Amino acid sequence: MDKILVIITGMAIVTFIPRMVPLVAISKLDLPEYIKQWLRYIPAAILASLLVLSFMEYSEGSFNFEIEMLMASIPTLFVAIRTKSLVKSVLTGIIFMALITILT
Amino acid sequence: MTMTLKDKKSEIVKGAKRASPIILGYVFVGMAFGIVSRSSGISVLDTSLMSLLVYAGASQFVAVGLIEKGIGVLSIIFTTFLVNSRHLLMSASLSPYFKRLKSWKSAMLAFGVTDETFVLNSTELSKKENKNFYFILGLHGAAYTSWVLSTVAGALLGNYIVNPNELGLNFALPAMFIALLIIQITNRIDLIVCLVAASISVILLPFISDELILILSTIFAASLGVVLKNG
User: Fold this and answer.
1) What is the pTM of this model?
2) Is the minimum CB–CB distance between A40 and chain B shorter than 8 Å?
3) How far is CA B32 from CA A4, A20, B179, B181, B186, in A?
4) CA–CA separation, B30 vs B13, rounded Å?
5) Does B221 contact A94 at a Cβ distance shorter than 8 Å?
6) In chain A, domain spans
């Protein structure tokens, strides 16, 4: 087998296992309440962390910000708070981002 | 509970429609991956195969970079494992909703767990617990299909297509994260958990990889949430 096919097959296996094991195994367990609470806080924490990673990076000794994305976040945040609608927020974000990219 | 074929179909369609923000984002990232992979000297077929079988964006970009540098097979596979081990937390967090599902169905849906489908699903599932297998299947299927097709498009067309940056699509996923965050925060502890996770992420940014930041900040902030809730 070609080297790259070995790599892809290996990657597929080690990627699938951490996705599959908790969903198949943990879902069968009766978890104590505090573990369930802990699992429920994970999405909010991951979201906040993903946002930081989307807007910031660190290289060569300094923090760099995605200024255009930060600008587009303001109308997106406004629409998200007002409508609580995913689609409206994302469309607002994309339109403003396109405008900012074209205009700057 | 028995479902007719029509019910199943309508749930799949509902899930697929709900995936639309993810699809917009994946079109952008998937095409970028196709282009980057081709320029690293990987064939169209292998590039497409990687998206088809691995389906994990960040790790695919990393792997392509390592392949180009001529790094060994085992190192690349191990790095992939490290980058994707964060999915353990996500699948664990979703697992209570999968209690009544047959193992093979859970395994099938598990293949579709990504950062984006996870945050979307967990918002959907916490609203209404009885979202069923077919809804998630539609959501995961649509996101996965868009990832694979846009990889193929990027790999084939490469530089002929318009720069998706100019369409604002690079902001589709961050915009979705913002909206989901707003929907998820329903009380003071939620807000504290978010602020703490964000602060830790900023503090750790100069020192460790993005994937490790996600894992450590999440473990810490979620634990703090439990302490605050019971304290």
Assistant:
1) 0.88
2) yes
3) 20, 27, 24, 26, 35
4) 22
5) no
6) 66-104
Q: pLDDT tens across A26-85, in order?
A: 988 888 999 999 999 999 999 999 999 999 999 988 999 999 999 999 999 999 999 999
Q: How far apart are CA B43 and CA B68, in angstroms?
A: 12
Q: What's the CA gap between A32 and A90, in Å, rounded?
A: 37
- ipTM comes to 0.92
Q: What is the rounded CA–CA span in Å between residue B155 and residue B145?
A: 15
Cβ count near B191 (within 10 Å): 15
Residues of B in contact with A97 (CB under 8 A): 168, 170-171, 175
B197 within 8 A of B203, measured Cβ to Cβ: no
In sequence order, the 6+-apart residues with CB closer than 8 A to the CB of B126 are A40, A43, B184
Q: What is the pLDDT of residue A92?
A: 96
What is d(CA B15, CA B215) in angstroms, rounded to the nearest whole number? 27
